[in-house]
User: Which sequence fits this backbone?
């Protein structure tokens, strides 16, 4: 896990992010984002992953979450603002979508929810 990226684990954390209503759906995923005042000054961000039973059995859901974890670990440190919590939700297309498209989906979603970090800028 990259430096500065932590995991959301508790259900209450996921519900808090879902309750903020900053979300954007792309073909490869849904991104939910919420400012986290408790870690804004620490220069870190937190991310959680989920996939509903609608997208497939446990094997498919685990594959979706593995792909989303790899995507987040690669992209969020450079492209997402710190001081935010993010939840990536897998969709039916996530397991088969090529990784370059997933990267593009994440960038679009970050821009749409206002959490995109321009290159060279800090939070």
Assistant:
């Amino acid at each position: 896990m990259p430096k500065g990226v932590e995991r959301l684990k508790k259900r209450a954390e996921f519900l808090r992010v879902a309750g903020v209503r900053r979300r954007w759906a792309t073909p490869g995923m849904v991104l939910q984002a919420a400012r986290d005042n408790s870690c804004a000054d620490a220069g870190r961000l937190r991310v959680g992953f989920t996939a509903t039973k609608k997208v497939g059995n446990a094997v498919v859901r685990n594959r979706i979450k593995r792909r989303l974890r790899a995507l987040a670990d690669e992209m969020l440190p450079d492209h997402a603002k710190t001081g935010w919590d993010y939840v990536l939700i897998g969709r039916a297309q996530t397991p088969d979508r090529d990784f370059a498209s997933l990267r593009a989906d994440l960038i679009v979603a970050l821009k749409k929810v206002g959490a995109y970090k321009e290159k060279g800028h800090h939070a």
About this structure: The radius of gyration is 13 Å.
